[in-house]
Structures are given as structure tokens and as C-alpha cells.
Amino acid sequence: MSLLKNDLSEPMRRVAEHVYSAHFEEDEQLDKEYSPYRRDRMRQDIVYNLSFLQTAVEIDDQQLFANYAEWLFSLMVNLMPDLPTNRIREQMITHYQLIIQAIEKELDSSIIASYTTHLKRAIETTKVVQPKNKERNYAEGKYGFAREAYLNYLLNFDVQKAIEYMTSLYNNPFDLMEIYTEILRPVMVEIGERWHDNELSVDEEHYMTSITQLVVSRFYDVIFDSPKEKGRMLCCSVGSELHEMGARMISDLFEHDGWDSVYLGAGVPLQAISKAIERHKPDLIALSVTMPQHLSICKEIVEHVRSTFPSVKIAVGGRAFTMTDAVNTKWPIDLASNDAKELITWANVTFLETANEDAIACD
Q1: Domain 5-128 - what CATH class?
Q2: CA 347, 350, 351, 357: dihedral to nearest 10 degrees?
Q3: ∠ CA(231), CA(232), CA(233), 5° rounding?
Q4: pLDDT 10s digits, 15-43
């Protein structure tokens, strides 16, 4: 889990180097605790952490970095089981303090306060946060048996049985919306949690995602055979985002519901999105963000679409938005939702209202 340094501004890159060096100067014990591998990961993670901080400042979000600090603490506890929890807490607090010191040296005085506010909140969060309870309830409720069975196939890397099982559930007893939102999505969230808890490696998580993409592809005949009698929607992931399952599933469900969907894929830049809107003239654009570092890019796209194509409805969603505060009131969007059923219901109502208004205007 790392970002390219190009994701940071030049001053923030210098901050990253200062912080890395200062850690070992400040804490001699790290020489014993950190292997060459851990040192390399530490350098990468400093860049990763600073990218979150930079994004929080850019979008002026008061919750993003504090929520990230809580998530990061639990991650570090899971990744370094040989260290006591309070030792990790001490390291993380020192980490944020060193960032403050480096920022005061490297950044323009006019923006230092914005950064330190987020860092001080992260320090206070880290002082009291406790490691996350690993109890999970993904296998409970009406869909629990299906989630558990599908997850077991993934954990055993049994591609054929995973595909056969999920396709067997279609209309017996679940519809496509249930399969996507109540089984596949919760299982993918569970896989992410297991990676976070150091129970799965990155390559295992990626492989299980690829299996789920294969499962989804088996429903394409059903999805694209649906009559298209509603509006047109355009969907994509933004920035350098490579997590596309959420956006892909939203596009599929709209298509199945009778919309003409245009799926642009992952890592789509602003210029490409703008050209796609000009070409396809969608009624709705849905933007997905999984990694919070890309929220500032998403905000830029939203503002461009709103000013350039004012009649197009804008919806945003994805896991990144669960870490933010009041996006609905701060961004010029029409809806923020991580619930596919809610999004489609809202779009259908909005499209019907627009169609009725157009009909009245024609009369």
C-alpha cells in the first residue's frame, strides 16, 4: 500500500524526507525494532499519510484525517503484533508531532495552521483510540449463508465453484440487486477488513477481487438484455483510482434497471470525463472514489461538471466518502450515497420528474 511521490506537492515531498530521518534521530529504539523491510515500508507510509493530510486540507474536511488516524492505528497494531499497543500509539503520536515540526519548516506560513489543525486532531484521536474489535457479522441475517459460502470459495481460491455458486443464486432465491448489494459487496468489504487485520495479503485481496469481477461478468447477458427505456448515465472511478468494482457494479445495476449506462472504467482524468459527457450527453454522472486521497480530484471534477454541464445530475459514492463530513452540503452535487438501491431509486424519481416537466413545457 503506497503512493507515488508525484501525488504530493514538492514542499510535502521534502516534509516526507524530514519526517523519515527525524524518526530515527528522535527514537533510537527504532533501529532495533525496524528491519530493512519495515524501514522501506515506513518511508512509503509517510508519503501515504501525507497524501491523506494534503487531501484533507485541499477539500477542507474536518473529519477525514482524524478518521484516517483511527484506521491507521488499528492497521499498525495488526501489522506489528510483536510491539505492544502502547508502543505503537507512542510511535504514531511522535509521527504526527514530527510532521508538524517539518511542516513549520517547509510550508508557506499562510497554510501551516490548516495542516497543524488536522494533525493535532489526529494526535488527540490516537491518544484514546483502541484497536478495532475483530468480531464480524457478515454471515448474519437473510443473506448470511450466501455470503459465508461465497467467501469460503474465495478463501480457497476456487474460481469455478465461486462462479457456479453465485450464478445459481440468481432468481433462486435472489434478484440481481440482492446479489450485487447484499452478497458480493459485503463480501468484498469483509475481504478488505481481513487485509486491514493482516489476515490477507495484498495479492490475495487483489486475486479475490478478480474472481468477483469474473462472477459479475457472468451476469452481463441478463444485464444488457434489459430494455433501455429510462435515461442515460455515465459512471467511472476518478484520479489514479484502480478500485473499480463499486463503479462497475453501479453501472451494471443501472443498465439492468433500464438505463443506458456508459462505463468509463478506472483512473479516468477530468479531460476524458468532460469529452465523454459532450459525446454521450448523460442525464446523470456517477463518480466513485475508494481511496480518500482522490477526493480532491473528485471535487475538481464535480465543480467542472456543474459549471460546464449544469443540467447533468451529479452523484458521488464509494468508501472514501464514509471518512468525510457533510459532503452533501459542501460540494455542488445532487446526491452522495453508498447504497446502490437508494441511488437508482433517486435517479428514477428524478428522471421521471424531469421528463414530466419537459412534457408540460412542450404542451
Answers
A1: mainly alpha
A2: 180
A3: 120
A4: 999 999 998 988 888 888 888 888 888 89
Domain boundaries, the chain: 5-128, 144-217, 228-362
| Fold classified for 228-362 | Rossmann fold (3.40.50)
Cβ neighbours of 4 (radius 10 Å): 9
Provide the whole-model pTM. 0.86
Angstrom distance (rounded) from CA 282 to CA 102: 46
Q: What is the DSSP-derived secondary structure letter of residue 230?
A: S
CATH class of 144-217: mainly alpha
Q: How far is CA 269 from CA 120, 215, 237, 315, in A?
A: 33, 28, 9, 17
Cβ atoms within 10 A of the Cβ of 156, count? 10
CA distance to 220, 317, 318, per residue, from 280 (Å):
21, 21, 23
Question: Interior CA angle at 215 toward 231 and 220, to 5°?
Answer: 35
Q: Residue 356 has what pLDDT?
A: 58
Which spans in 27-143 are helix H?
30-33, 36-58, 64-79, 85-106, 109-128
Rounded Cα–Cα distance for residues 165 and 159 (Å)? 10
Burial 88-115 (b: 16+ CB within 10 A, else e): bbebbbbbbbbbbebbeebbeeeeeeeb
Which residues in the chain land under pLDDT 70? 1-7, 133-134, 240-242, 326, 354-363
Cβ-based burial of 140 (10 A; exposed 0-12, middle 13-18, buried ≥19) = exposed
